[in-house]
Amino acid sequence: MPDDRETQLALEKQGVLFTQLNRFYNWGRKSAIWPMAFGLACCAIEMMAAASSRYDIARFGAELFRASPRQADLMIVAGTVTKKMVPQVVRLYNQMPEPRYVISMGACATSGGPFRDGYNVVRGVDLYIPVDVYVPGCPPRPEALLHALITLQQQIDNQAIREVRWYGDREARDFPVPIFGKHGLEVEGIEGTADPVGGIPRMAPYVSPALGGSGERTSNPQVLEGNVPKPLMQAAVEEVFGHGKAE
Ligand code: SF4
User: How far apart are CA 225 and CA 215, in angstroms?
Assistant: First the structure.
C-alpha cells in the first residue's frame, strides 16, 4: 500500500483511523521508551532534572527509568566513561533486550570531553557500543536531552519491521566486553591493545543505521562526517521545502 500521508490525514479529519502495521508498531514503541536508571558523572544530574516536574520527560512516555537492563530499551550514557567503567557499560548494554537504543549525552560520553587526553578516559562510547543520538554540551541542558529523545522517536518512526535486526529469526548480538591488558584495554577482534594508555584508540566507532552506517565499525570518512541522521535530514528537507534537495 503506498505511504499516502495526505489521504491518511484527510480520513483522520473525518474520524476514520487509517494506519499501517509499521506505523502502529513504531507508534507503540516510540511512545513507551523505558530508559535504564544509571548515570556516570555530572551529566546524570541534568538527566535527573529532565525527569523532574519542571521538564517532565513523562510527556514523551519515557519516565519509567528501570533499575534492571532486562526491562530497559534505552541506555542514556550520561557522563564520563572511564576505562574502568566501560566493561560494565558494555555488559549492561548486552543485557538489554532488543530493540535497544543508546543516547550519548554530553561531550564526555561522545568524545571524552575535557578529559579526552587523560590516561583513564574512553574517547567516545561509540568505540564500544553503537550510539543512535549524540547530545552536544558540557553538560547539555535537560531540554537538549528531550530533543534527543524526540530525535530517537523520529528514528523509530522511520523503521520498517522487515528491515530491523531484531524482528524475525535473527540472533541477538553481544558486543565484545573490553578487558584490561598489560598496556590498556583489549577488545576481541582488535589486534594488540585496542585503547592503549597514552596512545590513540586503534579501532573505528560503531555507526548506527540511523546515522548512515550499518551498525558495524566503520572508518569511512563520508559516514563519519557529522552526526546528522541522513534519512531524517532528507525527510525534514522534503517536508520544509517540498522537494528532495538540500539548498
Ligand atoms: S560533559 Fe561536562 S557535565 Fe557532562 S560528564 Fe563530562 S564534564 Fe561532566
Answer: 16
| pLDDT level of residue 136 (50, 70, 90 thresholds) | very high
Whether 247 is in a domain gets the answer: no
Per-residue pLDDT tens over the stretch 17-72: 767 788 888 999 999 999 999 899 999 999 999 999 999 999 999 999 999 999 99
Ligand 1 centroid, distance to 74 Cα (angstroms): 20
Indicate the number of domains in the chain.
Answer: 1
Task: Give a yes or no: residue 40 inside a domain.
Answer: yes
**Exposed, middle or buried by CB within 10 Å (0-12, 13-18, 19+), for 86?**
buried
For the CA of 80, the nearest atom of ligand 1: 5
pTM of the model: 0.84
108 C-alpha vs ligand 1 centroid, how far in Å? 6
Measured in Å, residue 182 CA sits from the centre of ligand 1 at 29
Say which CATH number the domain at 50 has.
3.40.50.12280
| Domain with 148 in it | 18-241
Query: Which residue owns the Cα nearest ligand 1 atom 2?
Result: 138
